Amino acid sequence: MRYLGECERIVSGGCPQVEMKGEERARLIEVRKGNANALDILKEVDIRVKLIEEKIPDLNLPAEVDDKLLNTWLYELRLSQFQNSKTVSTILGCSPYPSSYSIL
Q1: Neighbouring C-alpha atoms within 13 Å toward the C-beta of 93
Q2: Rounded to the nearest 5 degrees, what angle is found at the Cα of 21, between the Cα atoms of 18 and 27?
Q3: Where are the alpha helices (H) located in the chain, listed in sequence order?
Q4: Are the C-beta atoms of residues 95 and 88 closer than 8 Å to each other?
Q5: Enclosing H/E stretch for 50
Q6: What is the pLDDT of residues 57-68, one digit of tens each?
Q7: Backbone phi, then psi, for 54, in 5-degree steps?
Q8: Between 20 and 30 A from 29 (CA), which of 6, 42, 45, 95?
């Protein structure tokens, strides 16, 4: 479920998020607690995957993935969350934080 949300954001032109909020977070917690019906989850996953797959041809993705670039970018995202900072990834121009993010 978590990866589906990330895929939906990416195919829609967004960036992955380190911290889930709102309805998406609530849904993930319900699934993790076992409070969601397995058949309903499978139906939801099937629908969401089909919607993601429909958008893939429009993305002009490269034939192969640059593993080094991707791993560096993911490392930066995770490190910035771990350090509790507003470090912005310059690798792909994406920040894991919404523009209204603030550190308390």
Answers
A1: 3
A2: 105
A3: 2-11, 22-33, 38-55, 67-82
A4: yes
A5: helix 38-55
A6: 888 877 788 888
A7: -65, -30
A8: 95
